[in-house]
Design brief:
Elements (H helix, E strand, L loop, with lengths): L1 H29 L5 E5 L2 E8 L5 E5 L7 H4 L3 H4 L4 E5 L16 H15 L5 E6 L1 H12 L4 E7 L13 H6 L2 H8 L2 H17 L8 H4 L8 H21 L10 E6 L11 H5 L5 E5 L6 H4 L1 H17 L1
Parallel strand pairs: 3-4, 3-5, 5-6, 6-7, 7-8
Antiparallel strand pairs: 1-2, 2-4
Length: 313
């Protein structure tokens, strides 16, 4: 009996591995790396670039996402006036993962390295969505000489009281169990996420073709999913330490916050950030966790104001 069970488990595992390899090949063919690989501290960062003139703007995506999040939303609105750099965080999209990459310090190091390489000697506006907001803040804290301003979109900024880490991230994060679990994700993950996109945008409508245009399918490659899970399970502890430093910030900060955001509580994040640093807060009554879609023009205007205001001072 035990032999039969072991054989069945082994066959299931082998089948999952074969499926995940086939899925990875298919999704990477459909969504190839289209940007530049920028070496930072010995690890490549994949960067999409739009625009050839104007001050630099670095955009940092959130959890479960990649740089394509901005390539069809904000970049088309900005590429005529600024140089847009959209970077995959470590282990996401086509950026390399490495030991310790779940820390905000090393994520910020990789993002800062993109500016060192592609905009040397210049200051940039840093745009961060959700998890990317935490990384953007860390770049401004650790490398203030690189930053002219921050535009944060529904950012996660503080620890939130020990709840909110999804069960699938807890399952995928451990080294052994997580590796096995993540092999199953290509089978069930895409359909589950497609069904849940509405809740991320709620109360605003989800744009047609979001899953495909934002390249969300890349998430379900097992190494990408494990990287995302480890980022998420480490985040609260990381933020508990980082948030104590926000008083050091010396750059202008604009925050767009959807009052209907059900992914994270604006009061627990933006509300607390406001008590530590001056913030130009834009509250959007009809938006949720994705304000750069429904209010893309307003976000782009704010980015331009910071980019060109800083340039003329």
């Amino acid at each position: 009996m035990l032999t039969v069970i072991a054989a069945s488990v082994s066959a299931l595992g082998l089948g999952a591995c074969v499926t995940s390899l086939a899925y990875t090949s298919k999704v990477e063919k459909a969504l190839p790396a289209e940007g530049d690989l920028v070496p930072v501290a010995g690890h490549d960062v994949h960067v999409l670039r739009r625009g050839e003139t104007g001050p630099p703007v670095l955009m940092i995506h959130g959890a479960s996402a990649n740089a394509r999040e901005f390539s069809w939303t904000l970049a088309p609105r900005l590429e005529g006036s600024v140089r847009v750099l959209m970077a995959d965080r470590p282990g996401h999209g086509y950026s390399q993962r490495f030991a310790g990459a779940e820390t905000l310090e090393l994520q910020a190091r990789q993002m800062a390295g993109v500016l060192d390489a592609l905009a040397p000697g210049e200051k940039a506006v840093i745009v961060g969505h959700s998890f990317g907001g935490a990384v953007a803040l860390r770049v401004a804290l650790d490398r203030p000489e690189l930053v002219s301003g921050l535009v944060l979109l529904a950012p996660v900024t503080h620890d939130w009281g020990g709840s909110g880490t999804a069960w699938y991230n807890r399952a995928a994060a451990p080294p052994v169990v997580g590796h096995a679990f993540s092999q199953l994700l290509p089978i069930v993950g895409p359909a589950q996420v497609k069904g849940g996109i509405t809740s991320v945008f709620d109360p605003a409508p989800a744009p047609q073709g979001y899953f495909e245009n934002a390249g969300i399918g890349l998430l379900f490659r097992p190494p990408n999913f494990r990287a995302n899970a480890r980022d998420m399970t480490a985040l609260e502890t990381e933020l508990a330490a980082q948030s104590a430093r926000y008083g050091e910030l010396q750059v202008p900060v604009t925050v767009f916050s959807g009052s209907g955001d059900t992914v994270l509580s604006p009061a627990k994040h933006v509300g607390r950030l406001k008590k530590q640093v001056a913030v130009d807060l834009v509250i959007l009554k009809h938006e949720g966790h994705m304000p750069h879609h429904g209010e893309g023009d307003a976000v782009a205007d704010a980015i331009r104001r910071l980019a060109f205001g800083a340039e003329t001072r």
